Amino acid sequence: MGDISLGISCPSCGGALKADEGAKSVSCNYCNALIWLEGDEGVHTIMFANMVDRTKALNLTHEWFRRGLKARDLKKAGVITEIFPLYLPFWRLNARAAGWVCGYRERQKYDSQGRPAGVEREYMERMVFRDFDWTYLACDPGDIGVKRLRNLYGQVIPANVNEVPTFEVTTSKTDALNMGIQNVHQMAVQSANVQHITFQKIHVIPRQFMLVYYPVWIVRYKYQERVYFATIDGVLGKVVAGRAPGDPLYQSLIMTGGSVGGGLAAAAGVYLALTGISEELGILAIVGGVVLLIASYLFFRHGSEVVEGDIEAKYKGFSIKKAGEISSAVGGLRI
Amino acid sequence: MKVVHIKCPKCQNPFYSKATDTVFLCEHCGAMHVREPELKILDYEFWDFAQAYQGERYYMPFWRLYTTVTIHHMQVAGGALVKLANLLAGGGSSGNIFIYVPAIELSPEEFKYWSNLLTFTPPRANVALKVDKTVPRLPVKIGEAEAFKLADFLVLTYEAEKPGVLQDIRYDLRVNTAKLIYVPVFYYQNRYYPGV
Predict the structure, then answer these.
(1) What is the value of ipTM here, to two decimals?
(2) Residue B37's domain spans which residues?
């Protein structure tokens, strides 16, 4: 966050003025005159040093090929066609949220024999008073699997945006700030964890709003004539996103295992429920079995491609939330 | 970009300083002003150091907001409706209170500590007739508009932190006057301590 030369002179002594970008007042280094900067206030911009070189980026990609449920021969058959560093601009808002969220949550009550005995309300008043960080990609680089920053720290270097390969910022400062404030408000309300909200009032006070130029390496590679990619974090030195071919063997194994496991769990659930050993446990086992079955099917159906990062994976679409919806529909259970 | 040598809007005295701040105190006529969101002369006062303590001496800025709070409706689960009313003069549903909002960047814990300390147990401080210019002022980071929001949050906090579980409240908070108060503090082992 070093000073930048503003290209303007002190109106008092004529000396060159330097200031942090986005600063409104500055003291002249020569005569100590306090100067007010009016008009185009700019955007506070920082840039992190790229700590990964080409060799390290290649090594990281090959290590990544071996991890997870990717095609087993990817390390041998994957051919890297392109590898280059890039700086991605991100908007970053650090804001303090101050407010209260009030309401209640409902819990199922049970009698001494474990039978449902109505719903109990637990009243809640939760204070939110903490800082939140929101980041979002400020450009449109296409499909690289990164939309927000996972890391906010690194070695800061002078932000010479014109001297590094980067993308043009496509969202305005005002729009980004408004979007950031809305998101922080939403995060603050969610952090209170109140199920049924009866009252909420949260003030969002921006503390720092800046543009962060973050280094990444983009790796494109081919596998069986199809093109995939990996995105490497240039500060942390790890692959943060990518698309890779899946493996039919893993797909089949998971489908088989999921079917067997799901079927057994569901059967056990039916047995428990019908014999009266534990109706609750029975329903839980049936729901668990169905969830396992659906999840394994989705992986089988869409697992020909493994994705990581901010990419919507079809087999990941079956979330805990959806499982909760199914369970509610089946047995009135809350997950 | 337009560059302006900052001058006092009252006496036109030009400012020279190595330290930057968002409020500007004229050493010639004593007027303090802000330039954002608009040029405005501020009401302010400095308090005297009243006790000796270890550490460096500073003036810490607070917004002292003289407010009127009116509660229209309140719903509390599991408690009596006694809360904010206790704070208000006369114990009714409307009254006036001074709320102190720290004007510097503080951690949430420190923010609550200082605002509670000065709002609920305001010290018997003497207004400094002559400001000690050797004591640095901590720069103001929280503007007046932000202070109003934080005061609103503090009012809710006073209410919610009393017995019972707040479920709903409708109220008005009107800020009648705002004054920047420079409270003497000591900085010792990474903490500020009141010097009054």
Answers:
(1) 0.83
(2) 1-42
